Amino acid sequence: MTAPEVGPIGLGCASIGNLYREMSEADAAGTLQAAWDGGSRYFDTAPHYGLGLSERRLGRFLADRPRDGFLVSTKVGRLLVENPDYSDGDTDDEGFAVPATLKRQWDPSEAGIRRSLEESLTRLGLERADIVYLHDPDAYDLAAGIEQGLPVLEKLRAEGTADAVGVGANSAETLLACVEAAELDYIMLSGCYTLLDQPAAHELLPACLAKGVQVINVGVYATGILAQPQVPAQAHYKYAPASADIQAKAARIAGICERFGTDLPTAALHFSLRHPAVAAVVAGASSAAQAAQNAARIQAPVPEELWAALAAEELIPHGS
């Protein structure tokens, strides 16, 4: 069979690692199945997601599927090590509802990256990863990530241990520095090219086009404010309560979407794919229903006239 492509939509697997709340094994499997049934063949995970829980659950789901029928990306840079301060009942302090028996330890060295990937592949039950990303290096030490970590990723690709390599981050500036410093295949761009805000469009995305780096766009619902047809009164934007100006802008966009027969989250997904550097969007789902809804939205038609109308109102850049 022909190997699957990353796009147009993949499933982000943080939620099946118990992001913010516990998810049962049955619900995790149901979410993965709904994404699969909706056409997703690309699954993104990380050791960070539930201290390995996301990888284990994803591995169980994929175990009986042909290896050439799906793509998996995972991440390195954060080792999982024993937590010497763990007491019975302690839970993770980085947003996942799991016991804090392990903790994360930044390690961009060759030994650290190789160990991290080996442990991830064991949890996933895979012999190789399709894409390996250096995870949030700017949260720790960007210079060390670039100088130590990126050469190791290039070595892993040359060896065939990883088919492709890249960097995932929440900062366009961080990703631009990495694109300029190494020969990457992908970047995972979080929250920097959305229907509300496009800071990556100025330098990063043109640089990716010039170097042939494919962009996986994530966080396209802007952490909540674009996730519903009507903007909620207590909307969140970039992990914080949305300002009045941002809420007003999102509401204006929602109104224009309605005029053109679509809704805000559908437009948000489609907009995030429109830049020629973007190869796929990865969306999370905390239930089977959400995974099915994401699939339906990406398959729904959106009239081209919508983008012209939004640009005319100066709500998105002209030519977007």
TrEMBL record:
Protein name, per record: Aldo/keto reductase
Record lineage: Bacteria, Bacillati, Actinomycetota, Actinomycetes, Micrococcales
Protein origin, superkingdom: Bacteria
Residue ranges constituting the NADP-dependent oxidoreductase domain according to the UniProt record: 8-310
Pfam family, one: Aldo_ket_red
InterPro entries in alphabetical order: AKR, FDH-like, NAD(P)_OxRdtase_dom_sf, NADP_OxRdtase_dom
Provenance organism: Arthrobacter pullicola
